[in-house]
From TrEMBL:
Name used for this protein in its record: Alpha/beta hydrolase family
Species per Swiss-Prot/TrEMBL record: Rhodococcus coprophilus
Annotated segments matching region Disordered: 335-354
InterPro entries: AB_hydrolase_fold, Hydrolase_4, MAG_DAG_Lipase
Keywords: Hydrolase
Lineage, uppermost ranks: Bacteria, Bacillati, Actinomycetota, Actinomycetes, Mycobacteriales
Location of the Serine aminopeptidase S33 domain: 51-266
Pfam families xrefs: Hydrolase_4 (PF12146)
Single annotated GO MF: hydrolase activity
Highest rank taxon of the organism: Bacteria
UniProt cross-references to PANTHER family, sorted A to Z: PHOSPHOLIPASE-RELATED
Length: 354
């Protein structure tokens, strides 16, 4: 294993390459990349008073970790922060590899378990809260369900809680199209796994993020997204079907989502205030399949990535996260989010985050 090296995000960020061996899908040697945020404290090296708890974040499709404001906010709440770029995603993709391509979501267990092992060791056996966005919000619950079946469950592995940001729990569209489409995806995913799903690619969401002032590497996160491959989509549909049958992640969960969805081939200002990628009603419908205690909070005016929203909804999302983390650690106010439910109106934001 290599040592921690400076990361592309600059001061305070380091990365560790995790070798994973040969790709099960035949694209050579693969790696994952663990990123950590270590803000300067002014203390001598080796004398830092680092927290004994951490957040480990996993990105979605056509994504990688670049959201420094999340790391810095989490650190201000008394957590170490780590993020994982999965195999063939973001920092981890080597030349010639198909972006984000896997034919079995369970393959991600390898880097998830190694990342968790490293993070638990970094916080001296302390608690870890897992966090994920979009497709990562499907991958993590499936992995946790498997982890929870082992002796001691998720808790014995060091996991304390789960935060999902607009998780991808179902395929968009009417039920009859999902049923017919899933059958076609299953066949084509077996026969032509690397073939791209046909259809026009839209830059609506990417343009909205750019209008919002969020900057990132367009080679790692193109405006129109990477091509969706039938083999990958088949793996997603298999994972979603497993979720729909019911999981048990073994820890409390917080689900943040936008208050509304709107799909459009062209950008306009309303796209800045809705989920332009997923159907939020599907997120609400399937959230109860995670098992354990689940808190669901719609954030009015939020984007698909609620932590890349405009300032007001972003402040609300951070406030909801802080309230839930306070409850999880036994330091929240009485009556704060501690149960299962879909909160109809989020609290008024108390501040703004750039």
């Amino acid at each position: 294993m290599t040592t921690w090296q400076p990361d592309i995000l600059g001061d305070g960020y380091e990365q560790l390459v995790l070798p994973l061996g040969d790709d099960p899908d035949g694209e050579g040697e693969i790696t994952a990349t663990l990123v950590r945020y270590q803000p300067a404290t002014g203390a001598p090296e080796g004398a830092r008073d680092l927290p004994d708890r951490a957040v480990l974040y996993v990105h979605g499709f056509t994504d990688y970790f670049f959201q420094q404001h999340i790391a810095e906010h989490v650190a201000a709440q008394g957590y170490r922060f780590f993020a994982l770029d999965l195999r063939k995603c973001g920092r981890s993709r080597a030349p010639g590899q198909t972006p984000h391509f896997v034919t079995d979501l369970e393959d991600y267990d390898q880097e998830l378990e190694e990342a968790l092992r490293i993070v638990v060791a970094e916080v001296s056996g302390g608690d870890v809260v897992l966090a994920a966005h979009s497709t990562g919000g499907l991958v993590l619950p499936l992995w946790l369900d498997r982890l929870n079946r082992r002796p001691g469950g998720s808790g014995a592995a060091g996991v304390r809680g789960l935060v999902l940001n607009s998780p991808w729990f179902d395929l968009q569209g009417p039920s009859y199209l999902r049923n017919v489409g899933t059958a076609a995806i299953d066949v084509l995913g077996r026969l032509r796994p690397r073939a791209a799903v046909p259809g026009r690619k839209f830059d609506t969401y990417g343009v909205s993020l750019q209008h919002g002032g969020w900057s990132y590497d367009l080679d790692l996160k193109p405006l129109t997204g990477f091509p969706v491959r039938f083999g990958w989509l088949r793996a997603v549909r298999i994972g979603q079907a497993r979720l729909h049958r019911g999981l048990d992640v073994g820890v409390p969960s917080l689900i943040l989502r936008s208050g509304a969805s709107r799909f459009s081939p062209r950008y306009d200002a309303t796209i800045d205030t809705v989920d332009a990628v997923l159907d939020v009603h599907q997120i609400a419908r399937w959230a109860g399949c995670l098992g354990n205690r689940t808190t669901i909070v719609p954030i009015t005016g939020a984007r698909h990535d609620v932590f890349l929203s405009t300032p007001g909804p972003l402040a609300t999302a951070f406030r909801e996260l802080d309230l839930w983390l306070g409850w999880l650690n036994g330091t929240g106010a009485a009556g704060e989010p501690a149960g299962t439910g879909d909160v109809s109106a989020p609290p008024r934001p108390t501040g703004e985050h750039a």
